[in-house]
Write a structure and sequence with these properties.
Layout (H helix, E strand, L loop, with lengths): L16 H5 L6 H19 L1 E2 L1 H5 L1 H10 L6 E4 L6 H9 L34 H15 L5 E6 L6 H13 L3 E7 L10 H11 L1 H14 L3 H18 L3 H5 L3 E7 L3 H12 L4 E7 L7 H5 L6 E2 L19 H15 L3 E5 L9 H6 L4 E3 L4 H13 L3 E7 H4 L3 H9 L6 E5 L16 H6 L5 E3 L4 H13 L4 E4 L23 E4 L3 E7 L3 H11 L2 E4 L2 E3 L3 H6 L4 E11 L4 H11 L6 E6 L9 H7 L4 H13 L1
Parallel strand pairs: 2-3, 3-4, 4-6, 5-6, 8-9, 8-10, 10-11, 11-13, 12-13, 15-16, 15-18, 18-19
Antiparallel strand pairs: 1-7, 12-17, 14-16
Length: 621
């Protein structure tokens, strides 16, 4: 569906923030309504993130209206909510291309626009980056303002609190906006509270407050009494004591959908010195009832009809790897009372919904806290439990020290179920699971498995669970090749691969879900095909046995070539002084852009046709 900008007369006048700021304030409600409608109809016709953006329409308009962007810096956390920001910063006509191959990036991206100050994809980074910008702005002495916008989920991460602690300590001019959308707007977010917010953000209140502090410095008992009184009153009116303790001036909570209140409050706060904290209450999916009622379901959406109150159902012919994991987890838990499941805020994506309902006392969602998730598992394992950490490959990167120090170093029984390994597609460079084989392979005590299909995934999960020590099973996003699943769980022999096809001349060593493509390539080349299964320990005996009848080894993996499974093969051959040509196929030494999974794999030569071409070109050289 093509959107006609003539249907959005106010939005048509605000292609860039300079144009937005030229509008009279009484036009802003109409602008917000049109922006929300444009966002809904654009995303529904092309797919993408929806509910988060609908919830921050007024905030986005108010920020660009009050702040002199791009000179002033807006730092969005994660970026799911940044679609309205993209629409208002010169990218309105390109919005239908978002998350698509060679289209707009799914999140703010510095190379895409001068209005995107920080390239993001992982959460809880905004306050740290904004503080760095604020320090630089103070040294430049040009009057630049800095704002970080963070959600109530992202602020649970330790990194956010580290940044708050530092910001309050060094007292630089910056504003942190907490977008709180987990609860409906409560009674205290109404006319009275908005009035209090305007007072608390005003210059008179700020002057009296700071002046009063200085006056009381010479009378410590009275200062302590005033502090306790202030905390008591704030505790009755606003939940701001925590952020005040960090050294911030807290304002709010206010209605995040009241555009005039937002504009007036931001105008006041822009003038204040030191670290400021504004707490706003919003509703995910605001203005579109189905998204308001189901913000999780409408977080990321396929193409759909906004006139319908439901999303189209997926038509997959085989279960996703996430579902295979979720079903295995429930089956395993019914047999083993020691099993505990941990996830850092990825219940739906990791396939844990069924488990969370069936075994609520053994399910732990630790919020966006990957480091804590891993060390929590270590603590459970020390006490004899059998924790399973369900985590995306890209997020496991954030818990790398804990993986080494708290789990592997102590050789603890923790199973890592690593979802979204390899190419994830539309979420782009920040979410590609490109590095887990490389960064895990260097860690002593780790067992690393790469299933080629759904059935193998189930048995590898069981194998890792039965293994004594840390183990990881890494599997891709989406569905497998529809291999029938044997529900009787069987432990595989650790470190043993299997020959799928016997050929001659060339041996393809496959690690993971590209086996189906490698099988087609092997048929065309009359090559031997091996499902290696284990990256660590590597099946060195099988590998070395191939050398007598093959002149070329080709490794295939959906991981960075540097340091990955192919590198393990190279190291084995060098260690055994075997000089045989090896072609490593995998992800190149670049950050992989967004696009459909098959589009990206084809571009990287990881389809059957690409493998055959790469092998023939290598042989010709």
């Amino acid at each position: 569906m093509s959107l006609n900008i003539a249907d959005y007369p106010t939005l048509a006048l605000a292609s860039l923030p300079d144009e937005l700021r030229s509008l009279p304030q009484d036009r802003l409600p109409a602008l917000c309504a049109e922006l929300r409608s444009y966002l809904l109809h654009s995303v529904s016709s092309s797919s993408g993130h929806l509910a988060s953006g609908l919830g921050v329409v007024e905030l986005t308009v108010a920020l660009h209206y009050v702040y002199n962007t791009p000179f002033d810096r807006l730092v969005w956390d994660v970026g799911h909510q940044a679609y309205p920001h993209k629409i208002l910063t010169g990218r309105r006509e390109r919005l239908p291309s978002i998350r698509q191959f060679q289209g707009l990036h799914p999140f703010p991206w510095r190379d895409e626009s001068e209005y995107d100050t920080l390239s993001v994809g992982h959460s809880s980074t905004s306050i740290s980056a904004a503080l760095g910008m604020a320090i630089a702005a103070e040294q430049e002495q040009k009057g630049r303002k800095v704002v970080a916008i963070i959600g109530d989920g992202a602020i649970t991460a330790g990194m956010a609190f580290e940044a708050l602690n530092h910001a309050g300590d060094i007292h630089k001019d910056m504003l942190v906006i907490l977008n709180d959308n987990e609860m409906s707007i409560s009674e205290n977010v109404g006319a009275l509270n908005n009035h209090l917010a305007r007072i608390m953000s005003g210059s008179l209140y700020s002057t009296l407050r700071e002046g009063g502090k200085k006056a009381l410095e010479i009378l410590p008992p009275l200062k302590a009494l005033a502090k306790r009184t202030e905390e008591h009153l704030k505790g009755m009116v606003v939940p701001g004591t925590l952020f005040e303790e960090f050294g911030f001036n807290y304002v709010g909570p206010i209605d995040g959908h009241g555009i005039n209140t937002l504009v007036e409050t931001l105008r006041n706060m822009r003038k204040l010195k030191g670290p400021q904290f504004l707490h706003i209450m919003t509703r995910k999916g605001k203005g579109y009832l189905p998204a308001e009622q189901d913000p999780i379901g409408y977080h990321g959406v396929p193409k759909f009809d906004p006139a319908q109150d439901f999303l189209p159902k997926a038509t997959a012919t085989s279960p996703s790897y996430s579902k295979v994991f979720g079903d295995w987890l429930c089956d395993m838990a019914s047999h083993c009372p020691k099993l505990m499941a941990i996830t850092p805020a990825m219940r739906e994506g990791s396939g844990l919904v069924r488990f969370s309902k069936a075994f609520p006392t053994r399910y732990f969602d630790v919020a966006i806290a990957e480091q804590h998730a891993i060390t929590l598992a270590a603590g459970m394992a020390i006490e004899g439990k059998k924790p399973v950490v369900a985590i995306y490959s890209t997020f496991l990167q954030r818990g790398y020290d804990q993986l080494i120090h708290d789990v592997a170093l102590q050789n603890l029984d923790v199973l890592f179920a690593i979802d979204r390994a390899g190419i994830v597609g539309a979420d782009g460079p920040t979410h590609q699971g490109a590095y887990d084989l490389s960064f895990m392979r260097t860690i002593p005590n780790m067992v690393i498995m790469t299933p080629a299909d759904e059935n193998e995934c189930r048995h590898m999960l069981y194998t890792g669970y039965q293994h004594s020590g840390p183990a990881a099973v890494r599997y891709p996003r989406g569905t497998g090749p529809n291999v029938p699943i044997q529900h009787q769980m069987t432990a595989l022999e650790i470190g043993k691969g299997r020959i799928i096809r016997q050929g001659k001349g060339v041996a393809l060593l496959n690690f993971g879900p590209l086996l189906a493509e490698a099988e087609i390539a092997a048929e065309k080349l009359d090559a031997t095909l091996v499902d290696m299964r284990f990256v660590k320990p590597l099946d060195e005996a099988l590998l070395l046995s191939l050398l007598s009848e093959h002149k070329l080894l080709v490794t295939v993996e959906e991981n960075a070539i540097m340091g990955g499974a192919g590198s393990a093969v190279n190291e084995c051959l060098m260690r055994n002084k075997k000089l045989v040509p090896v072609l490593n196929l995998g992800l190149p030494d670049i950050f992989i852009e967004q696009g459909g999974q098959q589009q990206i794999l084809a571009k990287l030569g990881l389809t059957a046709a690409g493998m055959v071409q790469s092998i023939k070109e290598y042989q010709a050289r």
